[in-house]
Amino acid sequence: MALFAKDPRCHWCKRTTKLTNDAYMSGNPDPLMATIDHVVSRYHPHRWVKQKEGEQRKVLACYECNHARSVAETNALSRAEILRRSQGFNLNPKGKPVIIKPLETVEEVLAKMGERGILLKA
Predict the structure, then answer these.
(1) Which end of the chain is more exposed for a tag (fewer CB within 10 A), N or C?
(2) What is d(CA 103, CA 112) in angstroms, rounded to the nearest whole number?
(3) Is residue 35 within 8 Å of residue 61, measured between CB atoms?
(4) What are phi and psi for residue 26, nearest 5 degrees?
(5) Worst-scoring range by mean pLDDT, 17-21, 42-46, 68-72?
(6) How many whole angstroms separate alpha carbon 50 and alpha carbon 31?
(7) What number is the average pLDDT over the span 87-103?
(8) Mean pLDDT of 93-106
(9) pTM recorded for the entire structure
(10) Max Cα distance, the chain (Å)
(11) How is residue 39 annotated by DSSP?
């Protein structure tokens, strides 16, 4: 609500988003439905570093842009990379993520993942 009150437009395409109040949505969502999008990809180690004061990590995005970015990020990875990363981050709901709370630096994230044999590039 705070993001919508600040600016109801999508961070990416600048179209005005729509707030919905449907807890049991069925069918295809409205492309302009307001969602919260993370600026840093879930595949990037920086996502697991503690947020600096004043750093904006979440933005208001329309469903269409949010979904398109997610699909593009995933499609850019090889199948082997997706499987390797799913062992450490929360992509696999049945697995146990290596990192639960944010760490101080990207180097700490990479070291923690390396302990589990998951080698990532910053």
Answers:
(1) N
(2) 9
(3) yes
(4) -130, 155
(5) 42-46
(6) 31
(7) 60
(8) 70
(9) 0.65
(10) 45
(11) S
